[in-house]
Design goal:
This protein is an alpha/beta fold and 605 residues long. It contains 28 helices and 17 strands. It is elongated.
Length: 605
Amino acid sequence: MYQVIARTWRPQRFSEVIGQKHITETLQNAIRRSRIGHGYVFSGQRGTGKTSVARLFAKALNCHSGPSPEPCGECDSCLEITAGRAVDVIEIDAASNRGIDAVRELRETARYAPARDRFKVFIIDEAHQITPEGFNALLKTLEEPPSHVVFLLATTEVHQFPETILSRCQHFAFRAIGFSEVLDHLQRICSAEKVEASPEALAALAASGEGSIRDSLSRLEQAIAAFGNQLEGESVRRLLGAATTQLVEAVFSAVHTHDRQAILEVVEQLVKDGCQLNHFCSQLIRSVRNLLVVRVAGPLPHLLESSPQEIERLTKTAQLFSEENLLRFLDILLHLYQDLRHSMEPRFQLELGLLKLVDAERLTSIESLLARLETGVSLPSLKTTTSGAETKNGSSTTLPAAGMSNESKAGKVSYPTSSVSPFERDLQRKKELNSSVATISDGQIEPVSQHTSSSATGDKKPASSSQDIHSHQPSREEVWVHEVLHALKERSKPLLASFIEDVQQWEFGEREVVIRLASGMTPMLEADRPLLSQIVSQIAGRPIQVTFGEEWKQANTNSKKSTRGEKASQSGTGPGNTVIQDAEVQEFEKLFGKPVTSIRLGKGK
C-alpha cells in the first residue's frame, strides 16, 4: 500500500531528527553513561518529532546491540518497533484511555517483566488528557516503577500536567522547526521523490507549516496530488488558500501612494478568489515583519522566512517605508488579525484595517510633538507653490500672520500632504491668544504684546483706526468676567456659565459687583449667588459681594445718572466734575483711549 510522505520520511535514527539536537544528544549521552531515567516528558507543538524521538529512544534501549546511542535498525526489536508491533513497547492514546480504570490496567501490565526485550517502554501520547484521578493513580508507579519500566509521556499542552507528575520526570521541550531547516528538508524530499518545485512553492509550503515539519510534509503531499511533479509558486499558494504575491505587493504599493481605491479593489479580489481573509492578514504580518528585518538588519537570509527571489523584492519594498511606519503597520495588523477571528463581517473589518495603514504614515508621534513643544516649534513649514506647482528648490514658507491673506506675491500657500494636526492648530491658537491678552498682577494691567517693547523704549507710532482695532487691550473687568466663566466651567456649572455669559451689563464697585439679569431670572440664580461671590473674591483678591439687578432698572438708573451728570456738568460743580477733571483720570483716559462714562460715589459721599 502507498504510504504518505510524512510516514515514509519519519526519522529512523537520532541523526535524522531535524531541529532537536539538544534533546537527541542528551538522550544519547544518558545511554552512554548508563544514566537512564524511569520517566520522561516530551512537550512541544504538533509535528516537531515527539513521538518519533520516543520510538527512537525505545529502539536504542532495546536494540540487540545495545543499549546503544544509535539503534541499528536491523535487529528484530528495531524492526518490530518501527512497524508498531513490538510486544514490549506499548503505545497508548491517552485521549481514549484517560480514566482511572485505564491507568489501573497500565499499572498491572507494568508489574510483569518484558517478554523478550531489555525494557518495557510505555509511550503515552497526548498525555495531558489523562484525568486528575488517572494522574493520581499513576503517581506511585511513576515515582518508583520496576527497574525494567520506562515511561515516555508526549504532550502538546504541558501546562495541564500536575506538578506532581512533572517533578517525577525529566522534561524535554521540543522547539518549533526553523524555516530554513524545513525548507532544506523539503528540498531533499522533492529531490528524492523526483518532484520539481520552484523556490517560491517550497517557501510557501515551508511557511504554511508554521514550525511543524509534519504539517509542511502534509501540504507537500497535497500539492503533489494536485499538480503532479511540477510545483509552481502561485498555484501552490492558491491550493493553500493564500493570496498571490501580486496582491500582497499591491497593498504595500497602495499604502505608499495613499491610494484608498486600490485597497478596496484588493479586498474585492480576495473575496472573488475565495481567499481566507484572516490568512491574508497573517501573510501581511509576515511580510511587514520581513520588511522591518530588512530595514533594521539588512537582507539576511537566516532571519527572513522567504525565498531568495522574495528577499530581493523585499529589499526594494523596504526602501519605501521608515522603521517607525513599519512598526505602526505591524501593530495595526496584529490588532486586525485578532479582530478578524471574532468579526461578524470580516470583509468590512479587513477594509477598515487596511485603510488605517494608508493613513498611518501621516500620524505624528507624541514624542515628536513634545519635542516641538519644548523647542518652541509649533507648526511645520508650509510648501509654497507657484501657478499650482511646487517650487523646484523645495522652498517653504511659514504660516501667514493673522489678518493676512492666504495668497502672497510669491504664490499660493498650500498645506503639505500631511496636514497640520489638531494639536498643533490648538497650540498656535493659544499662542496667538496669549500674545494679545493682558496679564493682571497686583491689580494693574500689563500688556503682553509686541507693542509693550516699543512703548517701553519711547518709540511712538501714529495711531490709526485699524491699529486701534487690532491693538485693543481688554480691561480688567473684561478679564475678570472671562475668568469667572472659566471657573464656572471648571466646576461643572455649564448652565450657570451660559446664563452669565449672556449678561451684557456688569457693574463693578469697590466691595460689590452688580450683575444685571433679564426680568424673572433672579429667583432662578439666587442659589448660585454665594458661589459667584466666592469666585469673584478669589479673582479680585479681596472680599466682594455679588448681587443681582433687574434689566429694566438699568435704563432708569442710567437715565437718572445721566441727568445728574448733565446737571453737574452744566453747572460745572459737583464731585463728578471734579473727578473727571482730575489729572490722573485724564491720563487714564489717554492710556486706554476711552472717556470715563459714569462715576459712582461711595456711601456717605
